[in-house]
Amino acid sequence: MGLKEKLQADLTDAIRSRNEVVSGTVRMLLAAITNEEVAGKAAKVLTDAEIITVLSREAKKRREAVEAYTQAKRDDLAGKEKAEAAVIANYLPEQLSEGEIKKLIADAIAETDAKGPAGMGLVMKVLQPRIAGKADGGVVSGLVKAALAQ
Fold this sequence. Notes:
Layout: H1 3-16, H2 20-38, H3 48-71, H4 75-89, H5 98-112, H6 120-131, H7 137-149
Helix pairs in contact: 1-2, 2-3, 2-4, 3-4, 5-6, 5-7, 6-7
């Protein structure tokens, strides 16, 4: 069963169990996937890897919203976004720890023989397929910059 089919099955289960947080979040995820499928000149069916990219983007939106609502002292809205983020996390691959990310970065730097800030693009190009959906790009970018500055 593909990821999209799992989302659709989970939506049916959530509606039957009257779980409004899960059903609303999964509906939103399916809408985002559909929007991605029909974007561009021709409609296409997304692969599971492409769906994970869409889910990662939605998870990032939730993290940013939690941060914004927390700063604005809107704990009620921050709690809602946290609940949605928890539902989305169930469909994403296990996230890499900072130590694992640093090891991947060290391997990529050794592989590309990158030096200084100019090597950032080379390192990110090698890292991107290895971390797709498993780590936040902003965090990885910051760690790569720090590693190349040494």
